[in-house]
Amino acid sequence: MQIQFNFKSFDPSDHLMKYARNRFSKLGRYIHNPEGAEIQINLEVEKFRHMAEVVLVDKNTHISAREESEDMYSTIDLVLDKMEAQLRKSREKVKDKRKAKKPSMVRMDVISFRESASGRERTIVESDHFIPKPMSVDEAAMQLQSLNYEFLVFDNSELDRINVIYRRNNGDFGLIDPGI
Predict the structure, then answer these.
(1) Domain that holds residue 30
(2) Contact criterion met (CB below 8 Å) for 41 and 6
(3) Domain tally for the chain?
(4) What is the pLDDT, as a whole number, of residue 39?
(5) Are 134 and 155 in contact (CB under 8 A)?
(6) Are 166 and 154 in contact, with CB atoms under 8 Å apart?
(7) 30 and 57, same structural domain?
(8) CA gyration radius, the chain
(9) Domain end marker among 75, 101, 127
(10) pLDDT tens digits for 34-87?
(11) Element (H, E) at 69
Protein backbone atom coordinates (compact mmCIF):
# COMPACT_ATOMS: atom_id res chain seq x y z
CA MET A 1 0.00 0.00 0.00
CA GLN A 2 1.36 3.38 -0.99
CA ILE A 3 1.03 6.09 1.63
CA GLN A 4 1.71 9.70 0.61
CA PHE A 5 1.83 12.70 2.92
CA ASN A 6 1.15 16.40 2.33
CA PHE A 7 1.87 18.90 5.10
CA LYS A 8 0.58 22.44 5.27
CA SER A 9 1.70 25.16 7.69
CA PHE A 10 4.06 22.95 9.74
CA ASP A 11 7.10 20.72 9.51
CA PRO A 12 6.37 17.20 10.73
CA SER A 13 8.57 15.26 13.07
CA ASP A 14 9.87 11.85 12.10
CA HIS A 15 7.91 10.38 15.01
CA LEU A 16 4.62 11.85 13.68
CA MET A 17 5.20 10.45 10.18
CA LYS A 18 6.15 7.04 11.55
CA TYR A 19 3.09 7.06 13.82
CA ALA A 20 0.74 7.97 10.95
CA ARG A 21 2.31 5.43 8.58
CA ASN A 22 1.97 2.63 11.17
CA ARG A 23 -1.63 3.55 11.97
CA PHE A 24 -2.80 3.83 8.36
CA SER A 25 -1.03 0.67 7.24
CA LYS A 26 -3.62 -1.19 9.34
CA LEU A 27 -6.26 -0.26 6.74
CA GLY A 28 -4.73 -2.88 4.47
CA ARG A 29 -6.60 -5.65 6.28
CA TYR A 30 -9.93 -4.24 5.03
CA ILE A 31 -8.83 -4.07 1.39
CA HIS A 32 -8.89 -7.05 -0.97
CA ASN A 33 -5.65 -6.08 -2.74
CA PRO A 34 -3.63 -3.76 -0.46
CA GLU A 35 -0.63 -3.62 -2.84
CA GLY A 36 -2.66 -1.64 -5.39
CA ALA A 37 -4.19 0.78 -2.89
CA GLU A 38 -3.06 4.38 -2.43
CA ILE A 39 -3.64 6.53 0.64
CA GLN A 40 -3.21 10.30 0.46
CA ILE A 41 -2.86 11.91 3.90
CA ASN A 42 -3.16 15.70 4.10
CA LEU A 43 -2.19 17.17 7.48
CA GLU A 44 -2.64 20.85 8.26
CA VAL A 45 -2.24 23.16 11.25
CA GLU A 46 -4.08 26.48 11.67
CA LYS A 47 -3.41 28.10 15.03
CA PHE A 48 -4.81 25.52 17.47
CA ARG A 49 -6.70 23.43 14.91
CA HIS A 50 -4.95 20.29 13.70
CA MET A 51 -6.73 18.89 10.65
CA ALA A 52 -6.35 15.65 8.76
CA GLU A 53 -7.93 14.64 5.50
CA VAL A 54 -7.39 11.11 4.18
CA VAL A 55 -8.33 9.71 0.77
CA LEU A 56 -8.07 5.98 0.05
CA VAL A 57 -8.23 4.89 -3.59
CA ASP A 58 -8.31 1.26 -4.63
CA LYS A 59 -9.56 -0.63 -7.67
CA ASN A 60 -13.12 -0.87 -6.31
CA THR A 61 -12.98 1.59 -3.42
CA HIS A 62 -12.82 5.37 -3.01
CA ILE A 63 -13.21 6.49 0.60
CA SER A 64 -12.36 9.78 2.26
CA ALA A 65 -12.60 11.22 5.76
CA ARG A 66 -11.80 14.52 7.47
CA GLU A 67 -11.27 15.31 11.16
CA GLU A 68 -9.85 18.04 13.35
CA SER A 69 -8.87 18.45 16.98
CA GLU A 70 -6.31 20.27 19.14
CA ASP A 71 -3.66 17.51 18.85
CA MET A 72 -2.33 16.00 15.61
CA TYR A 73 -1.98 12.49 17.08
CA SER A 74 -5.60 12.41 18.25
CA THR A 75 -6.69 13.86 14.89
CA ILE A 76 -4.94 10.98 13.14
CA ASP A 77 -6.67 8.49 15.44
CA LEU A 78 -10.09 10.08 14.84
CA VAL A 79 -9.77 10.10 11.06
CA LEU A 80 -8.47 6.52 11.12
CA ASP A 81 -11.55 5.43 13.10
CA LYS A 82 -13.78 7.03 10.46
CA MET A 83 -11.92 5.29 7.65
CA GLU A 84 -12.13 1.90 9.39
CA ALA A 85 -15.87 2.33 9.93
CA GLN A 86 -16.43 3.17 6.26
CA LEU A 87 -14.31 0.22 5.11
CA ARG A 88 -16.12 -2.19 7.45
CA LYS A 89 -19.47 -0.96 6.15
CA SER A 90 -18.29 -1.37 2.57
CA ARG A 91 -17.02 -4.89 3.25
CA GLU A 92 -20.33 -5.87 4.90
CA LYS A 93 -22.23 -4.63 1.85
CA VAL A 94 -20.13 -6.86 -0.37
CA LYS A 95 -20.73 -9.84 1.93
CA ASP A 96 -24.48 -9.17 1.94
CA LYS A 97 -24.54 -9.01 -1.86
CA ARG A 98 -22.70 -12.32 -2.08
CA LYS A 99 -25.20 -13.93 0.28
CA ALA A 100 -28.13 -12.50 -1.65
CA LYS A 101 -26.84 -13.80 -4.97
CA LYS A 102 -26.71 -17.42 -3.82
CA PRO A 103 -30.18 -18.89 -4.28
CA SER A 104 -30.84 -21.87 -2.07
CA MET A 105 -31.80 -25.15 -3.67
CA VAL A 106 -34.91 -26.97 -2.49
CA ARG A 107 -35.27 -30.74 -2.71
CA MET A 108 -38.72 -32.18 -3.09
CA ASP A 109 -39.31 -35.93 -2.66
CA VAL A 110 -42.47 -37.92 -3.33
CA ILE A 111 -42.63 -40.64 -0.68
CA SER A 112 -44.71 -43.80 -0.71
CA PHE A 113 -45.41 -45.92 2.37
CA ARG A 114 -45.93 -49.65 1.95
CA GLU A 115 -46.97 -52.22 4.50
CA SER A 116 -44.47 -55.04 4.97
CA ALA A 117 -43.83 -57.80 7.50
CA SER A 118 -41.50 -55.54 9.50
CA GLY A 119 -43.95 -52.60 9.52
CA ARG A 120 -44.38 -49.58 7.27
CA GLU A 121 -41.59 -49.05 4.74
CA ARG A 122 -40.82 -45.67 3.29
CA THR A 123 -39.81 -45.51 -0.37
CA ILE A 124 -38.84 -42.40 -2.33
CA VAL A 125 -40.76 -42.62 -5.58
CA GLU A 126 -39.67 -39.34 -7.17
CA SER A 127 -37.17 -36.59 -6.36
CA ASP A 128 -36.73 -33.07 -7.74
CA HIS A 129 -34.38 -30.14 -7.09
CA PHE A 130 -35.30 -26.56 -7.92
CA ILE A 131 -34.63 -22.95 -6.96
CA PRO A 132 -37.75 -21.25 -5.55
CA LYS A 133 -38.81 -18.16 -7.47
CA PRO A 134 -39.13 -14.86 -5.57
CA MET A 135 -42.76 -13.72 -5.35
CA SER A 136 -45.26 -12.23 -2.96
CA VAL A 137 -47.77 -14.35 -1.02
CA ASP A 138 -50.60 -13.20 -3.33
CA GLU A 139 -48.63 -14.21 -6.44
CA ALA A 140 -47.85 -17.59 -4.87
CA ALA A 141 -51.55 -18.14 -4.08
CA MET A 142 -52.52 -17.31 -7.68
CA GLN A 143 -49.85 -19.63 -9.04
CA LEU A 144 -50.88 -22.44 -6.70
CA GLN A 145 -54.49 -22.05 -7.82
CA SER A 146 -53.61 -22.04 -11.53
CA LEU A 147 -51.19 -25.01 -11.32
CA ASN A 148 -53.58 -27.15 -9.29
CA TYR A 149 -50.81 -28.34 -6.94
CA GLU A 150 -51.32 -29.14 -3.27
CA PHE A 151 -48.46 -26.85 -2.16
CA LEU A 152 -45.85 -24.46 -3.56
CA VAL A 153 -42.40 -23.63 -2.17
CA PHE A 154 -41.43 -20.04 -3.00
CA ASP A 155 -39.01 -17.28 -1.99
CA ASN A 156 -41.16 -14.70 -0.17
CA SER A 157 -39.98 -11.40 -1.67
CA GLU A 158 -41.55 -9.40 1.18
CA LEU A 159 -39.70 -11.30 3.94
CA ASP A 160 -36.71 -12.45 1.85
CA ARG A 161 -36.92 -16.09 2.98
CA ILE A 162 -38.34 -19.42 1.86
CA ASN A 163 -42.07 -20.04 2.52
CA VAL A 164 -44.57 -22.77 1.67
CA ILE A 165 -48.15 -22.08 0.67
CA TYR A 166 -50.56 -25.02 0.67
CA ARG A 167 -54.16 -25.79 -0.17
CA ARG A 168 -56.38 -26.59 2.81
CA ASN A 169 -59.25 -29.10 2.76
CA ASN A 170 -61.86 -26.30 2.78
CA GLY A 171 -60.30 -24.63 -0.31
CA ASP A 172 -58.47 -21.86 1.55
CA PHE A 173 -54.71 -21.49 1.57
CA GLY A 174 -52.29 -21.92 4.46
CA LEU A 175 -48.83 -20.35 4.72
CA ILE A 176 -45.81 -21.91 6.41
CA ASP A 177 -43.08 -19.43 7.31
CA PRO A 178 -40.20 -21.22 9.09
CA GLY A 179 -38.50 -17.90 9.94
CA ILE A 180 -40.96 -16.88 12.64
Answers:
(1) 2-101
(2) yes
(3) 2
(4) 93
(5) yes
(6) no
(7) yes
(8) 29
(9) 101
(10) 888 999 999 999 989 999 999 999 887 899 999 999 999 999 999 999 999 999
(11) strand 62-69
Beta bridge partners of 174: 166
Do 112 and 97 fall within a single domain?
no
Residue 90 is part of a domain; what is its CATH number? 3.30.160.100
Q: Is the alpha carbon torsion for 81, 84, 89, 92 positive or negative? A: negative
DSSP line for 140-173? HHHHHHHHT-SEEEEEETTTTEEEEEEE-TTS-E
Last residue of a domain, one of 101, 117, 147: 101
To the nearest 10°, report the CA torsion of 54, 59, 62, 68: -10
If asked whether residues 20 and 73 sit together in one domain, one would say: yes
Distance of CA 157 to the CA centre of its chain: 18
Residue 154 class from Cβ within 10 Å (0-12 exposed, 13-18 middle, 19+ buried)?
A: buried
